Amino acid sequence: MTRRLDKDRQRAKRLMPDFPLCRVCLWCLIFHLHPLSNFLDKVSTVLNQLLCKRFAITTMANTNVFTLAIVLSTIFGAVSPQTALAQSSESDPAPAAVPSESQAKVDEKTDNEKGIAAKNWKPLEGSWVVCQFGGDGEVEIKGNSAKIGYGDPLSGIRWEGDVLRENYEIALEARRTEGYDFFCGLTFPVGESKVSLIMGGWGGGILGISNIDDNDASQNATTQFRNFDNDKWYKVRARVTDNAIECWIDGKKLIDQPREGHVFDIRAEMEQCEPLGVAAFQCDSEIRNMRVRQLTAEDLASQNQDESDDAVSETDTATKEAATKDDAKQKEKESK
């Protein structure tokens, strides 16, 4: 008998928490105050028996009104007990997490970069043609995107619309899908001249600009050794101003080449891409989101301020280094 009662208590405990208790209490109050409470009590007795039979629970004394309240609260609530609990959870959502100060600064910086990046950009689409290098691979152009197939040695595309030549930026995303050499040879105007930004040249590891003072990307001041993974998209941006040629990859400035006192041109094999185009050397590559924008006076003023700050920083560094050397010499003299 004791075991049976324990089992009944366990079943009742599992059953009762599933019902919205506030609604049950309300129905109980109504039944006790209603003039037909005796009639309702008889009805609840029957429902109590059915409920106990359905869940294999022995009849519980003095629970008739409570049983009826449970049934009606579920019926008139128009939802199941589980749904009622779920709705209750949804109506009282957990408070949103407050970002840390460092995260807020990162988010602010990201928003600013997005705002600057979206300013005045125009997609380069509608005037692309396939280059004719000889030995070209299959090339597919769609809007401001392109798939450039393996060439022997080169394949590429050329822009035949209007071009900007001074104080502008050009940007795109590029990836190499197969092969080992340069997958983005971006040729663009620099005034009346032109240059090519080479990514992954000379067997895959060279980044630089061709040509500066007749020296290509493998042997001038912009030459860098960098690994480029296949099937990875790289964000590329080049800026031409009166003072310099600057290039960024994935948001990091990697090239800052002064214009004054230098002669710029491209290698002869890249002439099919002038004045603006993209080529790939013995590899399959993809280019997307090609776009261009004219720099505003605000952009140029901001750049001049950055250059001024850099110059001040370099001067301060040189001054500190000189002071350190003087201190070392003085200490050496004193020790003697």
Automatic annotation (TrEMBL):
<keyword id="KW-0472">Membrane</keyword>
<dbReference type="Pfam" id="PF06439">
    <property type="entry name" value="3keto-disac_hyd"/>
</dbReference>
<feature type="transmembrane region" description="Helical">
    <location>
        <begin position="60"/>
        <end position="79"/>
    </location>
</feature>
<keyword id="KW-0812">Transmembrane</keyword>
<feature type="domain" description="3-keto-alpha-glucoside-1,2-lyase/3-keto-2-hydroxy-glucal hydratase">
    <location>
        <begin position="165"/>
        <end position="293"/>
    </location>
</feature>
<dbReference type="InterPro" id="IPR010496">
    <property type="entry name" value="AL/BT2_dom"/>
</dbReference>
<keyword id="KW-1133">Transmembrane helix</keyword>
<feature type="transmembrane region" description="Helical">
    <location>
        <begin position="21"/>
        <end position="40"/>
    </location>
</feature>
<protein>
    <recommendedName>
        <fullName>3-keto-alpha-glucoside-1,2-lyase/3-keto-2-hydroxy-glucal hydratase domain-containing protein</fullName>
    </recommendedName>
</protein>
<feature type="region of interest" description="Disordered">
    <location>
        <begin position="298"/>
        <end position="336"/>
    </location>
</feature>
<feature type="region of interest" description="Disordered">
    <location>
        <begin position="87"/>
        <end position="112"/>
    </location>
</feature>
<feature type="compositionally biased region" description="Basic and acidic residues">
    <location>
        <begin position="317"/>
        <end position="336"/>
    </location>
</feature>
